[in-house]
Amino acid sequence: MEFDKKSLLKLGKLARISISDDKLNSLSKDLNSILEFVDQLKEIKTNQVDPTSNSLNQKLEVRDDKVITKNNAEDILENAPEKEMDFFVVPKVIE
Amino acid sequence: MKDSYTLKSLAVLLENNKISSKELTSEYLKNIENGKELNCYNTITQEKALIDAGKSDERRKSQNLRSKYDGIPIGIKDLFCTKGVTTTASSKILSNFVPNYESTVTQNCDDAGLISLGKLNCDEFAMGSTNKTSFFGSVKNPWKSVNSDNELVPGGSSGGSAAAVSSDLCVASLGTDTGGSIRQPASFTGTVGLKPSYGRVSRWGIVAFASSLDQAGPITKTVEDAAIFLDIISGHDEKDSTSSVNPKENYYENLNSDIKGMKIGIPKEFRSDKLPASTQKSWDECANLLKTNGAEIVDISLPHTMSALPAYYIIAPAEASSNLARYDGVRYGLRVKGNDLIDMYEKTRSEGFGDEVKRRILIGTYVLSSGYYDAYYIKAQKIRSLIKSDYVEAFKKVDAILTPSTPSTAFEIANEPSDPVQNYLNDIFTVPVNLAGLPGISIPFANDENNLPIGLQLITNSFEEQKLLNVARNIEETINYSETPEKWWLK
Asked: Nearest C-alpha of chain A: how many angstroms from B164?
């Protein structure tokens, strides 16, 4: 078993998702099943193969550096759960 | 579906003043109201649709039309950001999100005068192939087996988009396809689903799932409508750096169903004993039909086909875990209070995401984490190269490839497997196309012994959408598939 309770909780920390005790068993079963499925790729030799990250063979274009007035602070803050002046408000991080 | 409306037929009715946009929009809004049980729509924008339809009628009067299709109502998958209209990705975490910008694709629709009826249900963040992962509940397939009254899945993730077209809750809809999310539900609902080449349609303003695989496309009643809709939504967009600079074509105008001399490949790796006999029969019949119509059928090999699905379930979750990191309760969406910042993140994400999304984020986090990155993520990207080169080789020999769209027809909602991997197998025939960035289309071919639609998939080389549509049109013209579901929800 690759995913036991300890490794699952660590993964949850990395992904910033809290995992409750009652979900641990079913989640570890599911993730192990997925891992077992993708592990079949280990059988395939790929030493001489380059990775593909994107199927489009196109150079990234450089855009002109123009000032646009869209997406200003007001727009960006419109959906904020909590805001004050031009800022997002989060729980205190510095004592 | 010859008797019901299409984009093509509605354009003619509007042009001849047989119907106004407002009448048409009211008719569809009534269908939506009567079809509520199907759960196709997350949001119905009734008021806005009627106002927009009125404006379209004004434009028609003053001969100031935005396009031939001005005034035709459509549905939009709830994954496209729409200005002032809630955009949820069928997730609790975005259930209150109202974008203040419009996705390029929906803007293109508006520029053509199309009227949005509302936002269509889908799997949460487009992760699923049955629509069951939606925070707003499953969509019901308009089709039912002749042998049972049980409700069937519409497929996913664009399940609402496909079911709505099939049940006349809109004439055409927008979907997205990361591993089969347009083609698989189209196959399950007897509709036409087109996934364009990666880069053909802008991804700007679409809630991102796996950025190197996501692509928007239409679900329609006919291949002709698919060509019309692709004309409207495709093209380069400077806001999406991965949108192609290849000039778009006039797909509908250039639609030509002559396939004489074309070579159609049948990949042996897609053959399986597990394939239902009726699907195998349709596949064989379609190949024979293409042969009769002048094409040459060629046996081909795509040797790495079976590695596509496992590679996809590394790459897609990896990209998803990165893309979905933005949902942290700070800038938009749900926030659940916590003792400190980290606690707030963890509680927000735990409460805001459903089980399948969490599974994929966790797997994605795992395959990208220190010590596993090369073994999983890079390995999968190398497999992706092998799959791509399979297709490069194949398209040296053939013009198009014909396969089944799905390994089964629609199944019962109650029978959905609890093991996630069993569910992933739904996309076994569609996923390789996304990994290779190719265009693919699912078209209805026949109904099986339970009277459920069987879809067949055509694949062509990158940016050969015209050829893809031409072959699909040839099949459509020949078979004249005209099955429609019994409207049980009206009883």
From this structure: 30
Q: Calculate how close chain A gets to B87, using CA atoms only, in Å.
A: 12
ipTM of the complex: 0.95
pLDDT in tens, B276-329: 999 999 999 999 999 999 999 999 999 999 999 999 999 999 999 999 999 999
Please state the domain extents for chain A: 5-43
CB atoms A44 and B386 under 8 Å: yes
In chain B, what are the domains?
A: 7-260+408-490 (3.90.1300.10)
Give residue B5's Cα distance to chain centre: 20
* Distance in angstroms (rounded) separating the CA atoms of residues B299 and B295: 13
Q: Which token pair is B329?
A: 């309760």
- The model's pLDDT over B393-406, given as tens digits with 9 standing for 90+, comes to 999 999 999 999 99
B326 has a chain A CB within 8 A of its CB: no
| Residue of chain B whose Cα is closest to the Cα of A51 | B382
**CA neighbor of B141 nearest in space, from B121, B160, B113, B115:** B160
Residues B435, B431: Cα–Cα separation, whole Å:
7
Sheet holding B216-220, edge to edge: B41-44, B115-120, B73-77, B173-176, B216-220, B192-195, B440-447, B453-460, B400-404, B263-267, B296-300
